[in-house]
Amino acid sequence: MIKTAIVGATGYTGSELVRLLYNHPDVEIQMITSESRKGEPFSAVHPHFEGLVDHVLQPASAVLETELDMVFLALPHGVSMDYVKGYQSAKFNVVDLSGDFRLSSPEVYEAWYKKDHTHPKGFEDAVYGLPELHSAAIEKSSLVANPGCYPTSAILGLAPLIEAGWVDPAHVIVDSKSGITGAGIKAKPTTHYSNVSDNFKAYGLKSHRHTVEIQEQLSGLRPEPLQVQFTPHLLPVDRGILSTIYTTPIREEVSDQALRKLYEDFYADAPFVRLRKTPPTLKDVRSSNFCDIFTTYDERTNRIITLAAIDNLVKGAAGQAMQNMNLQFGLPETRGFVSLPLNP
Ligand SMILES: NC(=O)C1=CN([C@@H]2O[C@H](COP(=O)(O)OP(=O)(O)OC[C@H]3O[C@@H](n4cnc5c(N)ncnc54)[C@H](OP(=O)(O)O)[C@@H]3O)[C@@H](O)[C@H]2O)C=CC1
Ligand SMILES: CC(=O)N[C@@H](CCC(=O)OP(=O)(O)O)C(=O)O
């Protein structure tokens, strides 16, 4: 059994990790931590786990005093980096759900996150945890930087087109919409009920930190300079992301049939990417680890439109983290995933 700790489990991704790991046949949830609620049962914080997961919440400092094989960090960015620094000589594997080690260098991080990085060495060790692109490196890594939710949908939607050189890399437009759990559990004006309910808005224009994450990952697939215009939006739903991606083909022959073949070949060994024949909806992937993709060519405008849908808490966070853990421990990527999409 993989003895596992979840650090920061009073938040949304932490509790989602517990929900998924509970059903994993090779995992024993050894420890769940919280600073703000330590000493209370996990199920007192998340009552839907009552009678299922009643572990007493430990302080995160207990991680280093316990025999563990696996630690998930479900902490805010800027907080995770110090934990990773403290785990340098530990024997367990780590998947960090924050953005602290996803980018190429501390300099790029500091430019986009507008904060200092306290553990630059982590960038040398961390592997970007998108299994569809980096499974071989993830298998060998003890520190995985789990991707952001928006980047997961955008990169999976674009990777086949970029790698094949089918589209103009200088003009890629990613228009994404996310449910409110993407913003974390802490109440803030932007997540206030009356600001979200019956409303819809764009935010982070020109400057959202996921722009550089998407750009860096896609740039690794192709030598030409790549420029992404990324605009996130907040939907009045609790979970789910739908990204609508516009690209301009630079090869002569593009058709729906050719696009389908390109994506099928690229994702031949990707069990969680479903190539859809119709545009996916959020509920088609809700609660599952699927990324559903639909792509089509519009002859009138000479554009390719690609849609990618994920559950931000599953494929966009906790599910992807469990998929990465499976790879780190030499298990099939799909091991332990039992939840089918929840629709309605
Ligand atoms: N929500 C999403 O859809 C996604 C989130 N992520 C990333 O995953 C990480 C966790 O996200 P999420 O679960 O949504 O976050 P939440 O805000 O819901 O939870 C974070 C938890 O971290 C703990 N924590 C420890 N130290 C601090 C601190 N100094 N300030 C605030 N909280 C602290 C808190 O628990 P306690 O105080 O009890 O210890 C809190 O419950 C983040 O880095 C986020 O960016 C990535 C992809 C998608
Ligand atoms: C709806 C919403 O607010 N979403 C978050 C992104 C969530 C996520 O994946 O963020 P990390 O890169 O920090 O892990 C945001 O835009 O900041």
Structure description:
This is N-acetyl-gamma-glutamyl-phosphate reductase. Keywords: Amino-acid biosynthesis, Arginine biosynthesis, Cytoplasm, NADP, Oxidoreductase. It is found in: Cytoplasm. Pfam families: Semialdhyde_dh, Semialdhyde_dhC_1. It comes from Phaeodactylibacter xiamenensis. The chain is α/β, with parallel strands linked by helices and about 350 residues long. It folds into 2 domains: about 1-145 and about 315-330, Rossmann fold, CATH 3.40.50.720; about 150-310, 2-Layer Sandwich (Dihydrodipicolinate Reductase, domain 2), CATH 3.30.360.10. Helix content is about 30%, strand content about 20%. The strands form 2 sheets. It has a 7-stranded mixed sheet. It has a 6-stranded parallel sheet with strand order 2-1-3-4-6-5, sandwiched between helices. Helix 3 (about 80-85) links the parallel strand 3 (about 70-75) and strand 4. Helix 7 packs across helix 10. The radius of gyration is 20 Å and the shape is globular. The model has no long low-confidence stretch (mean pLDDT about 95). NADPH dihydro-nicotinamide-adenine-dinucleotide phosphate binds near residues 14, 76 and 181.
Summarize the entry for a quick read.
It is an enzyme of class 1 (oxidoreductase). The chain has 344 residues and is of the alpha/beta class.
